[in-house]
Specification:
- By secondary structure, the protein is mostly helical.
- The chain has two domains: 1-47, no CATH class; 50-116.
- Helix content is 75%, strand content 0%.
- The longest helix is centred in the last third of the chain and has 34 residues, at 88-121.
- 11% of the residues are buried.
């Protein structure tokens, strides 16, 4: 099974990159490489339902939103290998997707940082910013349009 899954990994990533990664692995790291190759490249990349291009775009989106730059560089090359239609439309769509993910990921990251800052300062932001007479435990109501 590992050999078949390793073939998928080499096809999607880069054969030289994968071989160098395996050559550097000691016994401890090789156990992790084996698990990730069988699970991520065997199970996840060979299941029916999604083609490689779609899987690659999904992975690009997740890595971009999470800000995992080192893996993102590697996946951009993999995305180009998986995309057999490297025309301007697919490149433009990919770039729109990545821009959206960067914005969404950064907004969420900023929100988490703000929440941590409020907790660290002892601030109860929600209760302090509600108009008087509004129950702080209830979510704000959406105004009704006439």
């Amino acid at each position: 099974m590992f050999t078949k899954d390793l073939e998928v990994r080499r096809n999607v990533l880069d054969e030289d990159y994968v071989d160098a990664s395996l050559a550097r692995a000691d016994d401890f790291v090789m156990a992790f490489r084996r698990i990730t190759t069988e699970y991520c490249w065997g199970y996840a990349w060979t299941r029916e339902g999604l083609d490689r291009r779609t899987r690659s775009l999904m992975k690009l989106a997740m890595l971009t939103a999470l800000g995992i730059r080192n893996e993102l560089r590697l996946q951009r090359g993999a995305d180009q290998r998986c995309d057999s239609r490297r025309d301007q439309r697919s490149a433009a769509a990919r770039n729109r997707l990545l821009r959206h993910c960067r914005r969404a990921g950064r907004v969420q990251s900023g929100a988490r940082c703000s929440a941590k800052g409020r907790r660290a300062s002892g601030s109860n932001y929600r209760a302090e910013t509600r108009p008087s007479g509004v129950n702080a435990t209830e979510p704000p109501r959406t105004p009704q349009l006439a």
